[in-house]
Design goal:
alpha/beta; 41% helix; 7-stranded mixed beta sheet; globular
Length: 211
Amino acid sequence: MNIYSFLSIGYDLLDKIWLSEKGNDPRRVIESILPNEKCKVLDMCCGTFTNGLSIARKNPNNLVVGLDRSKPMLREGKRKVIREGLNNVKLLCRDATDTRLKEGSFDYIIIGLVLHECDPDLTNKILKEAHRLLKRDGSLIILEWEKQSSIYRRIKYAPLYLAEVMCNPGYFTEFYKADKKEFFKGYGFETSLSISCNYTVVMKLKKNLEA
Ligand SMILES: C[S@@+](CC[C@H](N)C(=O)[O-])C[C@H]1O[C@@H](n2cnc3c(N)ncnc32)[C@H](O)[C@@H]1O
């Protein structure tokens, strides 16, 4: 049993309290990046499937695969998919480091709010798998926490910051403060777009084919 067995019920409060406040909601920004074309999207470590759900709803031509190793988180995602009657979605309970999915089979891969809680070994394995699964001209979309400049936001983000520091000692602060463009370069990705959102940043990355 891991922490997401408990967090699955209340997890979506994250969006209600922080991400969807007045300003750039990162979920809407991600949605706007993906075109309604016939293409395959992987929501890797999808949790309760918030990113994948809004994409599947907006883009009926996309096939959206949600993958997570936590059954309770996936159960919440499945509930939402059934409630909305979406038929362009597939949910898989698997580990992101060993997905058993076909190489080069996705046009878009989303990794949202995951890497800050991964130790360097897990980060390496997840990003290697994303690199393997992404088509040559595919895009990796990253959603991550970003340092806040406004005092109001620093105060409102403080409980989350403390929770992350306590749950992921050592690597959370290092990743949070890192130059993200340089960070992803180290894993064979070049940043083509970076949009500041509520408490977070949304990045679009391409495979560096010369690396
Ligand atoms: C903070 S949640 C993020 C959920 C969602 N992507 C979002 O944007 O809200 C992190 C999720 O990553 C999943 N996760 C962490 N490591 C994983 C792994 N190795 N394989 C599959 N899922 C993983 C957890 O089970 C959890 O559901």
